[in-house]
Amino acid sequence: MTSAAPEVLRLYLIRHGETAWSLSGQHTGLADIPLTARGEAEALELGQALRSTPFAYAFTSPRQRARRTSELVSPGPSVRVEPDLAEWDYGDYEGLKTSEILARRADWNLFRDGCPSGELPAQVLARIERFLARIRALHGNVALFSHGHLSCALAACWIGLPLIEAEHFQLGTAAVAVLSYATHHPKTPVIAQWNVQPARLPVQGPSDLEETG
């Protein structure tokens, strides 16, 4: 009797629920602010939507907004704190809105320029690649509780795009993206779903998205 093949790795990239700063559009990196009441409700709704999804592993950013989201979603396995999933360190731009940053530097692009006194793109890329190198050895569904810009950067890296291309991605609060491999090309990383809100869950895996012609 041949043993069953291991389950395909499927990363459920989950952004934390709403905070006061995500609502106002302020950059929130190291600032450790809590979820709003609406953010907690979003996380609870997300947990209900994902209750039928069996997770083999779960990891969270150390920031309380991500950790609290993971507690309310309650994915099943114990959630491990993973420093590499922390949001970009915005340095001097912490707490500022994009319009305020652009007033200082009109051509600024986070994914190209980084932040003064904060992280450079190469530093963020290094920790994403370090994390992905470890996570690729796992199998099954893996929940990753993280943040907006970090999640966009991670998705771009997953499919082999330069970090600057992350500027074309956007992930809402308490939204889910699914990163996996192509059904008929198992070595090709894909974004199977992107920016799925709780009301549209459960999300589909790559095998459910097969083209029919």
Would you mind describing this structure in some detail?
The chain is α/β, with parallel strands linked by helices. It has a single domain (10-206), classed as 3-Layer(aba) Sandwich (Rossmann fold), CATH 3.40.50.1240. The chain is built from seven helices and six strands. The chain has helices at 20-24, 37-49, 64-73, 98-104, 110-113, 121-135, 148-158, and strands at 10-15, 57-60, 79-81, 141-146, 176-181, 189-196. The protein has a six-stranded mixed sheet with strand order 3-2-4-1-5-6, sandwiched between helices. A hairpin with a 7-residue loop joins β5 (176-181) and β6. α2 (37-49) crosses α3 and α6 packs across α7 (148-158). The model is unreliable at 205-213 (pLDDT under 50).
Could you write a compact summary of the structure shown?
With 213 residues, this protein is an alpha/beta fold.
List the helices and strands and how they pair.
Blueprint (H helix, E strand, L loop, with lengths): L9 E6 L4 H5 L12 H13 L7 E4 L3 H10 L5 E3 L16 H7 L5 H4 L7 H15 L5 E6 L1 H11 L17 E6 L7 E8 L17
Parallel strand pairs: 1-4, 2-3, 2-4
Antiparallel strand pairs: 1-5, 5-6
Helix pairs in contact: 2-3, 6-7
